[in-house]
Amino acid sequence: MFTPWLLKFACGVTDNKMMWRVVIVAVAAASVAWVTPASAQWFPQWEDFGRRPFWEQQPRRGYDWDYYRPGRPRVTHGGGRPFIEPEAPKKVALENNYTPNSIIIDTAARKLYLIVSHSEAYEYPISVGRRGFSWTGTEFISRVAEWPDWHPPKEMIARDRRLPDKMTGGLRNPLGARALYLGKSLYRIHGTNDAKSIGRAASSGCFRMMNKHVVHLVSMVVVGTPVTVVRRMPPIENRISPPPPLPLRNAAAQL
């Protein structure tokens, strides 16, 4: 370190105040030169601090990065709620023995049928549960909601931490314009604006259809309507039970 007399001898500084100022500046410069390499050595992740967006910064070792993230959204807005004009799908010939006005879902064909009669039905294109989320059985419509709120289940939130606890009804809401709740289960028949998902196995067990179709379906059914989910509709020749044979006495009477 420079001493006052050495500085005075080397630099020709004769003013004592000026001499001490020069000494302080020299000591400060030496301190910075010593501390900076040490800081980089002990905290190498700080070398690029400020050069990247804050969300790309690396946390200190031993800390949980989730602790520093902002909390998940509690409630998000689902968007606007415009009037949706109902549109009836095509009617198809469908030999069946189901009760008229009941719903049959063929998961393999990605079709929902609203039974009109024993020979005819409305055919709606739908999206079904992806592998591991498909199911079969019979439920009943327990509730119908217009522009329903969406409450993602905890299992879904665990898979995607970006999901909110609640999304209000609207065009951005994945439940669409209407939802038909199936019994006490978590499954629903509901609308969607995502036309690309129709005809695919893409959901977590619910059945999606276009908003214009679900509005039409809601106008045709009531709470208590049975919903039967099958993997595949039986062949045409097996859809209707054969009529019972005539009693022998009646058959003889016709001779």
Give the count of helical stretches.
Answer: 6
Largest sheet: 9 strands, mixed
Indicate the CATH architecture of the largest domain. Answer: Beta Barrel
Tally the structural domains.
Answer: 2
Mean pLDDT, to the nearest integer, reads: 77
Distance between the termini: 132 Å
CATH class of the largest domain: Mainly Beta
> How many β-strand runs?
13
Please describe what this structure looks like:
The chain is of the alpha/beta class and 255 residues long. The chain has 2 domains: 1-69, no CATH class; 76-233, L,D-transpeptidase catalytic domain-like (Beta Barrel), CATH 2.40.440.10. It is 24% helix and 23% strand. It has 6 helices and 13 strands. The chain has helices at residues 4-11, 16-42, 65-68, 154-159, 211-220, 248-253; strands spanning 75-76, 91-93, 103-106, 111-117, 120-125, 128-129, 137-146, 166-167, 178-182, 188-192, 201-203, 207-210, 226-230. The strands form 3 sheets. A 9-stranded mixed β-sheet has the order 2-5-4-3-13-7-9-10-12, covered by helices on one side. The longest helix has 27 residues, at 16-42. It is elongated and about 115 Å long.
Summarize the structure.
The protein is an alpha/beta fold and 255 residues long. It is built from 6 helices and 13 strands. The strands form 3 sheets. The chain has a 9-stranded mixed beta sheet, covered by helices on one side.
